[in-house]
Amino acid sequence: MHSLPNNHTGARIKRLRLERHLLQRDVCTLAQVSYSTYTKTEQGVIPASPHLIAAVARAFGVSVATVTGQPYATELRADQLDVLIRPIREALDLYDLGADPDITPRAHQLLTDDAEALLVAVRAGEIKQTAGILPGLLQEATTAAHLAPRRDGWLLLASLYRTAYDVCSKLGYYDLAALALARMDWAAERGSDAVVGGMYRYMRALTYLRDGEYRTGQRLVQLGLSTLEQAEPSREREVVTGQLHLGAAVMAGRSKDRAAADDHLDEADRIAAGTGEAVSVHWLAFGPTNVRVHRVSVLAELDEYGQAAQVGRGVAMPSDWPASRQSHHYAELARAQLWTGQLDDSFQNLLRARKSAPQQARYHQTVRETYAGLEAARRQLPNSFLSYGSWLGA
Predict the structure, then answer these.
(1) Do 191 and 337 sit in the same domain of this protein?
(2) Of 207, 205, 211, 253, whose CA–CA distance to 225 is shortest?
(3) Of 4, 220, 282, 383, which has the maximum CB count within 10 A?
(4) Residue 50 sits in which domain range?
């Protein structure tokens, strides 16, 4: 047997509860979660939902990462990804030191091309490749921005800080991801770009979504929308506005506000009808497909897993849709299908998540929790099931 199910999030929640000498009903009262859902999560019978994880983390006074066990250090070492995090951390810390006298930066267009290539790579699921290149490019772009402090140089730097956020958050280094976002804001302010400022607030709102701080996240969404109103009308502005509404919809769903979630989804749908599929605009993958994918996520957050599974099966992916977004959708769909007892379909979507973006899926908390839930169901599963568990971290 593989070791993953014995270290699922429910097991960690139980250890944290026992360390605090609390009964299960005590935790349910503190976290304001269902007793049935909580006990089944502890047992590993059902996967830990993001809502429950955040609620329990607040009740215990710990971070969400403590509850989920991220970053997954053993797997990171095996993939030689852990050694790539320190150079990123060091590059993020150089932001205000001025130009490095030992670095002669290349022409701005060459740096921009490389930064754009990293945005494409991370969305293709090439996390290791991106993490290896990013620190050196960050240092070069930092020096270039300080040597010639122009708008385009600062916005290039903001783009690289955004990529640092993507890498760190996908690998579970959430504190470092938050630092990368702070650096993105610092550079965006110097570039005086309202659209990038709105996008920063969208990404920052996602960090509060993950931590279960929905009210703060909602305030950031409103601030982002207000910031975008200062930008000149453009398709770019519409795309980021629509993406903010999608983030707000998931946040409303997680806080169990169906009306607000529907309002945000409807507004995003209206905007998407005008923009069409805008996959490469700031690489947000905004458009009608992303609205449909977010409807699945919102239904799952509202605990309407049967409907989420039904809607999710009907989502058709455009050929140019980023592999990372495809993988995330398959993971969400697998979770909904597990909750509704569709075990074979759930596992098939875990396989699709892995095929689409293997490096991302290996460190995706929903993938790991869904796999643990499938194992706990103890029914006949394909022979490939245990090998999938070994790949995840046995």
Answers:
(1) yes
(2) 205
(3) 220
(4) 1-69
**Half-sphere exposure for 293 (CA within 13 Å, toward CB):** 24
245 and 258 co-located in one domain = yes
Number of residues that this document lists for the chain: 394
Same domain, 224 and 279: yes
Into how many domains does the chain fold?
A: 2
Rounded distance between C-alpha atoms, residue 136 and residue 159, angstroms: 14
Q: Answer yes or no: are the C-beta atoms of 362 and 376 closer than 8 Å.
A: no
Q: Which of 69, 92, 112 is the last residue of a domain?
A: 69
Q: What is the dihedral of CA 110, 113, 117, 118, to 10 degrees?
A: 70
Of 267, 289, 263, nearest in space to 276 by CA: 289
CATH number at residue 42: 1.10.260.40
Q: Which residues contact 229 (CB under 8 A, 6 or more apart)?
A: none
The CATH number assigned to the domain holding 106 equals: 1.25.40
CA distance 255 to 60: 19
Please list the pLDDT of the chain residue by residue as tens digits (394 residues): 344 445 678 889 999 999 999 999 999 999 999 999 899 888 887 888 888 999 999 999 998 889 988 888 888 888 888 899 999 999 999 999 999 999 999 999 999 999 999 999 999 999 999 999 999 999 999 999 999 999 999 999 999 999 999 999 999 999 999 999 999 999 999 998 999 999 999 999 999 988 888 889 999 999 999 999 999 999 999 999 999 999 999 999 998 899 999 999 999 999 999 999 999 999 999 999 999 999 999 999 998 999 999 999 999 999 889 999 999 999 999 999 998 999 999 999 999 999 999 999 999 989 998 998 888 776 666 778 878 888 887 4
> End of a domain among 69, 91, 108?
69
Cis, peptide link before residue 288, omega less than 30° from 0: no
Tokens 């945000």 -> residue: 264
Judge contact between 130 and 88, C-beta under 8 A.
Answer: no
* Residue written as token pair 């607030």: 201
Tokens of 21: 């000498």
Specify whether 251 is located in the same domain as 347. yes
